[in-house]
């Protein structure tokens, strides 16, 4: 999948499009094809290095889309195949085409 990836801390130039492996749904999670995603102030602070995140990092913590795969067990925030994620809920960030 294509995603916006940050491989180092710094300015906006350190965020670049890159191919990433497709995510896999762990128990209680869903892989979501994102239809809308957002970057916010938290992403700027991570990019600048004020908040540490393991690198490479895919920025974005808000998104909405359609479930394409679900893991075993319950998953909160899903209704009839649709998912909504708020800050800190998207594993792998909100700017890829798919997210966990």
Question: How would you summarize what this structure contains?
Answer:
The protein has one helix at 41-48; strands spanning 2-6, 15-19, 30-38, 62-70, 78-79, 82-85, 98-99. With 100 residues, the chain is mostly beta strands. β1 (2-6) and β2 form a beta hairpin.
- Quaternary organization: single chain
**Quick one: overall form?**
elongated
Strand fraction: 35-45%
The CATH class is Alpha Beta
Number of domains: 1
Helix content: under 10%
Largest sheet, in brief, is:
5 strands, antiparallel
Helix count, DSSP H or I runs of 4 or more residues: 1
Main sheet strand line-up: 5-6-4-3-7
CATH topology heading: Quinone Oxidoreductase, Chain A, domain 1
Detail the poorly predicted runs.
Answer: none
Secondary structure elements and pairings:
Elements: E1 2-6, E2 15-19, E3 30-38, H1 41-48, E4 62-70, E5 78-79, E6 82-85, E7 98-99
Antiparallel strand pairs: 1-2, 3-4, 3-7, 4-6, 5-6
Provide a descriptive summary of the structure in words:
The structure is a single chain. The chain has one domain (2-99): Medium-chain alcohol dehydrogenases, catalytic domain (Quinone Oxidoreductase, Chain A, domain 1), CATH 3.90.180.10. With 100 residues, the chain is mainly beta. Strand 1 (2-6) and strand 2 form a beta hairpin. The protein starts with a strand and ends with a strand. The protein is elongated and about 40 Å long. It has one helix spanning 41-48; strands at 2-6, 15-19, 30-38, 62-70, 78-79, 82-85, 98-99. It is 8% helix and 36% strand.
């Amino acid at each position: 999948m294509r995603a916006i990836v940050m491989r180092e801390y710094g300015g906006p130039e350190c965020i670049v499009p890159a191919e990433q492996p497709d995510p896999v749904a762990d128990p209680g999670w869903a892989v979501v094809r994102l239809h809308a995603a957002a970057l916010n102030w938290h992403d700027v602070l991570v990019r600048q290095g004020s908040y540490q995140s393991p690198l490479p990092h895919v920025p974005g913590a808000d998104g909405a889309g359609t479930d394409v795969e679900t893991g075993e067990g319950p998953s909160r925030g899903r209704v009839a195949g649709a998912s909504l994620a708020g800050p800190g809920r998207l594993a792998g960030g909100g700017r890829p085409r798919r997210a966990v």
